[in-house]
Amino acid sequence: MLLQLNDISKNFGGLQVLQGVNFNVRQGEIFGLIGPNGAGKTTVFNLITGLLRASSGSIRFNDDDIGAVAPHKITERGIARTFQNIRVFKEMTLLENVVVGMHDHLNYGVASMLLNLGGFRNAEKEARERALELLSWVRLDHKAHMLADSLSYGEQRKLEFARALATKPKLLLLDEPVAGMNPAEKTELMSEIVNIKQRGFTIFMIEHDMRFVMGLCERIAVLNFGKIIAEGTPDQIKNNQEVIEAYLGKEEA
Ligand SMILES: Nc1ncnc2c1ncn2[C@@H]1O[C@H](COP(=O)(O)OP(=O)(O)OP(=O)(O)O)[C@@H](O)[C@H]1O
């Protein structure tokens, strides 16, 4: 197992947001976490990436306990994420945005690279070539030299995705990757994610768009009021009575 959550609970003061959460993400798969608004999904990502600490339970990545590891160290260990609210540098080009994402993994500082200082030329050239390749994975390479500000909302999401890949993560966490995308952009992103998986990346996403999650994920866990109520293949999840009730309410179900 690449990632294991064992009996995780999280309280904010008196509010119990997660209770006894258990699930695993396997190497090489596309895994999805779904659940109604406020179920605790983003809290799970914040625990995995070290922004929050669990009240109890353990999180293991590559068999190491990462429950008390600081966020930047989590990135170094190979976990990258995108956020629900877009965080691209709008006044920088797409290429520069991705190069910035790499900086942890290069020996030279970003500032030096961007300033073209002699000894750093090679590192800069390599970084730019790699950034261009990552942009091509999300079909944004033709816009590499444009400012991020000129992108549509959906394109900015894809730029964030490319930037997260720049750290060469073993595990990529995507928080609502298709939020704000139009249907054509969603379909495109679906095939791009499949391609990225085929390159050996493991992907774990939170997503509300059922067509997207069901079409893409190999396994899905469902969180409701802080508890995992189901885990399985998309077909198992679609037909699970407790899941249907969580989404529709008992009356309608
Ligand atoms: N830092 C915090 N302090 C206090 N309460 C918090 C904190 N972070 C989250 N919560 C609460 O925890 C609960 C779960 O929030 P979380 O954002 O994890 O849900 P979610 O499933 O990601 O929701 P959504 O789908 O709407 O993004 C909510 O009631 C939220 O208000």
Structure, briefly:
GO terms for molecular function: ATP binding; ATP hydrolysis activity; L-isoleucine transmembrane transporter activity; L-phenylalanine transmembrane transporter activity; L-valine transmembrane transporter activity. This protein is of the alpha/beta class and 253 residues long.
Key features of this structure:
alpha/beta; ATP hydrolysis activity; ABC_transporter-like_ATP-bd; 253 residues; Rossmann fold
Description:
- The protein is an alpha/beta fold and 253 residues long.
- The protein has two domains: 3-86 and 168-248, P-loop containing nucleotide triphosphate hydrolases (Rossmann fold, 3-Layer(aba) Sandwich), CATH 3.40.50.300; 89-150, no CATH class.
- Helix content is 38%, strand content 23%.
- It has helices at 41-48, 71-77, 94-102, 110-114, 121-137, 153-165, 183-198, 210-216, 234-238, 241-248, and strands at 3-12, 15-25, 30-34, 56-61, 64-65, 79-81, 171-175, 202-206, 219-224, 227-232.
- It has a six-stranded mixed beta sheet, sandwiched between helices. The protein has a four-stranded antiparallel beta sheet with strand order 2-1-4-5, with helices on one face.
- A hairpin with a 2-residue loop joins strand 4 and strand 5 (64-65).
- Helix 5 (121-137) packs across helix 6 (153-165).
- The longest helix is centred in the middle third of the chain and has 17 residues, at 121-137.
- Residues 12, 15, 17, 35, 37-43 line the site of adenosine-5'-triphosphate (ATP).
- Adenosine-5'-triphosphate binds next to strand 2 and helix 1.
- It comes from Herbaspirillum seropedicae (strain SmR1).
- One of its GO terms (cellular component) is plasma membrane.
- InterPro entries: AAA+_ATPase, ABC_AA/LPS_Transport, ABC_transporter-like_ATP-bd, ABC_transporter-like_CS, BCA_ABC_TP_C, P-loop_NTPase.
- It holds the Pfam family ABC_tran.
- GO terms for molecular function: ATP binding; ATP hydrolysis activity; L-isoleucine transmembrane transporter activity; L-phenylalanine transmembrane transporter activity; L-valine transmembrane transporter activity.
